[in-house]
Every structure is written in C-alpha cells, then in structure tokens.
Amino acid sequence: MLLPIALALTLSAADAADAPCAPGRAVALDGIGTPQDELLRAAELVGAAPPTPRVILRGGAHEETLCASGAPLPWTLASVPPPGPDLRLRGVPVRLTSVFNSRYPSGADDGLLAAGRGVSGVLSGGIAVRWRFVSAALAPELSASANEPFDTIGIGPGAPRYANPYYGDGIDLPQRFGSEPFSAWSLGQSYLRADVANVGLGLSTENLWFGPGVRNNLLMSNAAPGFPHVFVGTSRPADVWIGDAEAFVFWGRLSRSEEFADRSRPLVSGLVVDLAPRFAPTLTLGLARVFVQKYELSARTLLAGLQPFEKNALPGDNPDDNQLASVFARWVFPASGFEVYGEWGREDHEWDLNDFLREPDHTQAYLLGLQKVWRTGPRWVRLQAELVHLQEQRPLANERGVPVWYTHGANLGYTHEGQLLGAWVGPGADAQTIAVDVFHGGGRIGGFVERVRRNDAYYWAVVEPVARGQHDVELTGGARGLLLSRRVELTWEAAAAYRWNRDFRWSEPNFRLGVSLAVPVP
Fold first, then answer.
1. pTM across the whole model
2. CB of 460 within 8 A of CB of 427?
3. CATH, residue 188
4. Would the pLDDT of 349 be above 90?
5. Arithmetic mean of pLDDT, 423-444
6. What is the pLDDT of residue 7?
7. pLDDT tens digits, residue range 281-331?
8. 399 vs 308: CA distance, rounded Å
9. How many CA within 13 A on the CB side of residue 26?
10. Average pLDDT in the 121-132 region?
11. What CA–CA distance (Å, rounded) separates 237 from 492?
12. CA 478 to CA 450: how far, in whole Å?
C-alpha cells in the first residue's frame, strides 16, 4: 500500500526547495520526538534544514543547523552561539508530562513514564554546559503513576504476580508494575562527552534512537528509559570518499523490574554505521547490531558486534548472546517535500549461507514509512504513514524453531526497567499508523488513526487452534496539537481506543489524554 503512495508523492513537483542549502544559524534541541525535533525533520523535506542521516539520535541537549536562505519555519526556534573557547551554559527546558488512561495501560515512546491505568506523569529539566571540546548535561527525570487496578492474567505459583504471561522468563515485560502507586527516577538525558578530531566519546544515560522510523524502530527507541552506557563514535558525518559516514559503538547495563524473577543486570552493546553515498547525498543506508549478554567483561562480550553473522562459525550455540540486527534506509527528496524510509531486521543468526538462502524470513521483522510536507503559505501540512511488522505467522522449516522478537531465555530479553528498548508495540506485534498535522505560527494541530495487533506469535501457537480469529487488536483514533506562547509549549493528545480480546480475554474501550508543558530555563 505504501509503495504506490510513495511513487506518486515522489513524482510530485510541488513545493520545490527554493535553493541549495547553505549552513545558517544553529538552534537548540533536546529530547527525541519533541516539537523541535519534529519540526527539524519536517524542515529537511522543504529545504529549510540540511538533509542529515537522522538515524543515530540521542536524547540529550544538542544543536542542529538551519539553512541560511531556506523556507521560513512556521515558528521560531531558539538560536545558540557557535562553539568557542568560552564556557557556555544553557538551560534544558523544564518539562512536565502527564497521561491519563481510563481502562488499561497505554503508552508508546515515553521513556521513564510508565503510563498505567489512571494518571501517570514525569518531570524533567536541567542544565547543559560546553567548554571547548567538552560538553555535558545534567537533566534528571522523576516519574510517578497512580497504577490503578485493571484485569490481568493470573500467573502460576513461584513467579512474580504480574510477570508477562506469554513468554515466561524470556522477557521482563510485566502486565502491571506492582499493585500500588509507584515512583521512579533516573539521570535521564544526562551525559559527559569530549569531541576531538571528529571523534566523540564519553558516558551517558540518554535515550538512544537507531533507525529511520518516526513511530517505531526495530532495535532502539525511547520506549524505555535510557540506560547507563559508555560510547565512542563520530561527532558528525565524516567524508570517506564514497560518501559521508557515521559510526556509533556503545556498552551499557540493563536493569530488571521487580516483576521479574532474575534481577541480575545483563550487558548490552551495539554498533551502528550509516553512509550517505556521494552519488545520492540525501539517501542514507545503515546497519545496526545490538547484543544482550550475561555480564562479563571479556573480549568475547566487548567485541560481540564484530562476531560473524553465521552461527556455525561461532563456538558452540552461543546461548549467552541475544543478537538483534537490522539494515535500514532513508531517502529525502527536498524538491518534492517527501521522504521514504524502511528497515529490515532479524532476531537470530542464520546457521550458514544455505540456511539464509532457504529461509531469509526466519525471525524477520520490517518497518516501512513515508512523510510528505506541503507548504501552503506560512503553514506546512504534513502527512505521515508507517507500518511495523514483528510477527511470524507460521513455523518455518528451520529446526531451531522461531524465536519471538525481543524475547530470550537466561535473562537476555530486550527490555530495561520492564520497558521495551525497541518498537513499543512489543513481541509478535504489528501496527499501522496514518497521521495528518498542520504546522502554523502558533504551533501544530492534527489527528491520527492507528491499528495495533499484539502477541500474534502466541496467538498462532496457542489461541488459534481453540479460538480462531480472536486476535488481540486495538484501533485508536485521536487528535493532537501544540500551543506556543513566548517559547512556552503546551502539547496535548486525546485518543479513543477499542481493544478487541485484550490479552485474548476482554474487549473494552480506553480513553487516553496526554498533556505536556515545557517551560524554557534562562
């Protein structure tokens, strides 16, 4: 469905960029998915900001550049001075986000916020500093949730009461975070880094975002809080003759929730690279690979990203490695105000080349999406469409079985603090989203429709033989907007959903209301 739309929009000559982009003023950003982040991505499509890979993102305070003579933005972004020898301080906005769910938990890319039933909220803010080649930010987060009761599935004796009912000890993804109201805190989008000769290194608790997706990514998103990690990578795209390339390598520790029996902290590490080819500078091609392993500081664990993709080339059956890998692409067409992107991944090594050629779809997942922006005077109209597919609907011939995305035994499931590191829709799920928004001088207004089908691997293995057609499916429609007043931001979203066969037992509606207030810090 997306391919014909993509071709039609690509061929459109409307809204051509006025001129090639020359670097202009730098603007301040913080967070992933904030109004500024959304505006900058849309600005790339109309020549107001230079096309960048935008596939290796971090959630902390940073700067991006606008085009010197590009299309005017619907609203003004705060400028920051260029790097220099003097100490520079700037505040990270104080942001209070609150979410209300009427019947059952519902949340997406919301980081530390665990949006249970009732009212939940998260407060963040802080300060960022830069001196010569050193930069840092202290931006902690504090969350709280009423965590009101709702129907859950009973768990057998010996397991935590609200543990995941489908995958046992394969993933720390609880139905509910205990039976009482709770609070949590973290260092949030804090970091300390040094950038020398286009190499950045440091330590951080920021959220990471790998891939081209807007609503989901296969390997890394901000659906969970950021985890502590050390990193090294390029500070900006580097000229490698055939194009401009970026690279990012990290090592960190994951934590488990109280609703998971094994509270040990596994090691997570990853490698991401991307390339904008010289022949097509607005095209980005990339590869990401992430491992969750039992904590051990050794060459085997620290260099896991360099191990072969073929399982028969590894010693043993590597039961202590949970590998996820993907390839992705994003192509921006500023002359048409359009971008198309996609990602394809696997949750398991292939055994050998013959195995891959016979069953390339073994544990596969994929994501496809597009964005189109029309300039109508001072307003921009944006269309978004995205689908993600994380499920296997049939057993393959491979004798290893069919692992479910994000699950793995030996406490190697792909979560942090009980929330998913990858696509928020979760194991064995798929989703389709369509949204339209209008950007104007006072903010943004729009709406969306989204369909999510959950735990389909479990459905085909357990439910379908006895209750054919009883998928767990949620359909949501909502309105959303942004109001601006003297750099104070009020973001809101109101959505009504109906979920058929939630957890394959109950059908019920849910009303979700989210409000976020951001106040700049001098």
1. 0.92
2. no
3. 2.40.160.130
4. no
5. 96
6. 45
7. 999 999 999 999 999 888 888 888 877 776 666 665 566 788 999 999 999
8. 20
9. 9
10. 95
11. 35
12. 9
- On the question of pLDDT at 70 being above 90, the answer is no
Alpha carbons 467 and 379: distance in angstroms, whole number: 50
Q: Output the DSSP codes for 231-295.
A: EEEESS-EE-SSEEEEEEEEEEE----TTSS-----EEEEEEEEEEETT-TTEEEEEEEEEEE-S
- Site of tokens 């009020």: 490
- Which domain, by its residues, includes 482? 2-519
Coil, strand or helix: which one is 300?
helix
What values do phi and psi take at 356, rounded to 5? -65, -40
Provide the token pair at 96.
């209070």
Q: What letter would DSSP give residue 188? A: B
Nearest Cα residue to 521 out of 203, 18, 95, 114? 95
Chain segment 382-406, per-residue pLDDT in tens: 999 999 999 765 555 555 667 889 9
Cα radius of gyration (the chain): 22
Confidence at 128, pLDDT banded by 50, 70, 90:
very high
Give me the mean pLDDT over the 423-432 stretch: 94
Which segments within 459-505 are labelled E, that is strand? Answer: 472-485, 488-502
Reported as a single tens digit per residue, the pLDDT across 176-202 is 999 999 999 999 999 999 999 999 999
231 closest CA partner among 268, 187, 276, 275: 268
Degrees to nearest 5, angle at CA 333 with 270 and 277: 50
Amino acid (one-letter) located at 9 = L
Question: At which residue do the structure tokens 């960022």 appear?
Answer: 128
Q: How far apart are the C-alpha atoms of 518 and 491, rounded to whole Å?
A: 8
Cβ count near 349 (within 10 Å): 24
Closest residue by Cα to residue 322 from 428, 205, 171: 171
The letter for the amino acid at 154 is G
Q: pLDDT band for position 363 (50/70/90)?
A: confident
Euclidean distance between the first and final Cα of the chain, in Å?
47
Q: Is the dihedral of CA 278, 280, 283, 289 positive or negative?
A: negative
Domain count, the chain: 1
Is 78 a residue whose pLDDT tops 90?
no
Structure tokens at 108: 């997406």
- What values do phi and psi take at 507, rounded to 5? -115, 125
Among residues 307, 218, 300, 234, the alpha carbon closest in space to that of 267 is found at 300
What type of residue sits at position 28?
A
The angle formed by the CA atoms of residues 154, 468 and 408, to the nearest 5 degrees, is 50
